[in-house]
Amino acid sequence: MTSQSTVLITGASTGIGAIYAQRFARRGHDLVLVARDTTRLEALAASLREETGVAVDILPADLTLPSDLAAVEARLREDAKIEILINNAGAALSGQFIDQSTDDVARLVTLNTTALVRLASAIAPRLAQAGTGAIVNIGSVVGLAPEFGMSVYGATKAFVLFLSQGLSLELTPKGVFVQAVLPAGTRTEIWQRAGIDINTLADLMSVDELVDAALVGFDRRELVTIPPLHDAAHWEALNGARLGLISDLRQAQVAERYQVAP
Ligand SMILES: NC(=O)c1ccc[n+]([C@@H]2O[C@H](COP(=O)([O-])OP(=O)(O)OC[C@H]3O[C@@H](n4cnc5c(N)ncnc54)[C@H](OP(=O)(O)O)[C@@H]3O)[C@@H](O)[C@H]2O)c1
Question: How far is the CA of 190 from the centre of ligand 1 (A)?
C-alpha cells in the first residue's frame, strides 16, 4: 500500500463512512465515495478536495440493487489504483423478528452481507495478485451478543466477523490485510433510520473517536478491532475458547453423551 493508493468507501455520505473519508483524505489518499445520496456525496467530495487537495470521485449506488452493486464491483475489479476497500455501508432494523417484515429482513441481509461480500470478492483477487492492499469490514459488537435482541442485524454482523477472520487467514499470507471493526453504539443517523429515538439510548461513542480508534487498529494491522472493549483480555479469552473448541471436534467419533446403547 502506498500513500497514493485510492480508498473506496461504501456508506460514505454520512456517519462512520464520512469520517473514514475525511481521515483517509487527510492522510493523502484519493477517494471513491459510494452511497445513494448524490447531493451529500457531492458536498463531502467538494469539501474534502478543497481541504486536502486529494482527488475524490463519487459513485452513487444503492447497494441493494444488483445493477448498482455490479457497477461498484466493476470499479473495484478494474481500477488498479484502489488498494483499500472500506466495506461500511449498513443499516439496522428495530423491533422483534416476528414484527419485522420479511422484505425488510431480506433487504437488511442484502445490504449488510450480500453487498459486503460481493465487494470483497470483487477486489480480493486483484489485491492478492498485487500482494498488497486492505479490506476493512465494519461489523458490530451486536454480532457477538444475541442477548442484545437484534437478531437479524446481529446475525449479519456475525457474518461480517466470520468472513473477515476467514479472509484474513487466506489473504494475509498473500500480503492483503483484512480488518473487522466492531463498534458499539455510535452517534450516527443509523438509529433514526431504524426508527429508534437516539435520546432514549445510554451514552453513545462519538463517530470521530470510533473511526480514529479503528484507524489505530488499522495501522497496527489488527484483525479484529473493538474500540469499546476496554479489557482486550476478554476478546483473547473468547478466541482462545473458540480455538480450544475446534481442537476438541473429532469428526469420526460421536461424543459420548450422544452414543446410543447397542
Ligand atoms: N452507529 C452505530 O451505533 C453502529 C454500531 C455498530 C456498527 N455500525 C455499523 O457501521 C456502519 C455505518 O453505520 P453508521 O452508523 O455510520 O450509519 P449511518 O449514519 O446510517 O450511515 C449509513 C451509510 O450507509 C449508506 N447506505 C445505507 N443504505 C444504503 C444502500 N442501500 N446502498 C448504499 N449505501 C447505503 C448511507 O448512505 P445513503 O443513505 O446516502 O445511501 C450512509 O452513508 C454500518 O455497517 C453499521 O451497521 C454502526
Answer: 6
Q: Hey, what's the cell of 246?
A: 475446534
**Element of type H or E holding 138:** strand 134-138
* All domains of the chain in start order, with CATH: 6-258 (3.40.50.720)
Decide: 14 in ligand 1 pocket, CB within 6 A: yes
- In tens, the pLDDT along 34-61 reads 999 999 999 999 999 999 999 999 999 9
Residue 214's CB: how many other CB atoms inside 10 A?
26
pTM, two decimals, is 0.97
Q: Is the CB of 23 under 6 A from ligand 1?
A: no
Question: Would residue 258 show up in a list of annotated catalytic residues for this protein?
Answer: no
Among all chains, which residue has been given the C-alpha cell 439496522? 92
Rounded CA-CA distance 15/164 in Å is 22
C-alpha to C-alpha distances, 158 to 86, 95, 109, nearest whole angstrom: 17, 19, 12
| Model pLDDT for residues 117-173, shown as the tens digit of each residue | 999 999 999 999 999 999 999 999 999 999 999 999 999 999 999 999 999 999 999
Q: What are phi and psi of 188, to 5 degrees?
A: -140, -175
